[in-house]
Amino acid sequence: YRRVQPEGIYSAVDYEIWPRCMYDILRYVNDGYAPPAIYISENGVATTPETVGKDGHVWDDLRATYYVDHLEQVAKAAAEGVPVRGYFAWTLTDNFEWAYGYTTPFGITHVDFATQQRHIKYSGDVYAMIARQETAPVAKSA
Q: What totals of helices (H) and strands (E) does the chain contain, helices first?
């Protein structure tokens, strides 16, 4: 027995990051069940713990890229008629994950659990920019 991990990008908990899967599952659900509306109620990525820089910023490029790439796939499916009505990031703040404790932050807001001080991360700024557009990112042309 030998564990083989294919090339690709992985989260801090070894889940492969594959944005195309978002499109594929939305098409599968729509084509197989024809729901009147689809809400993506929890989608996000775990990273290694981040630190607040001297400038007060938390740079989490992996998470920011994750949201942009996944929301592009949502936009692609919606442009093809999939009735996506909502998308909710997991999660607003770093939290306690039952399987990993505080070691794998998911939040778009950093929490210092000792002081309870919070800082919006780069991914939070990116997510806010997308939300202010009042639409998901436009899908890249093939």
A: 3, 4
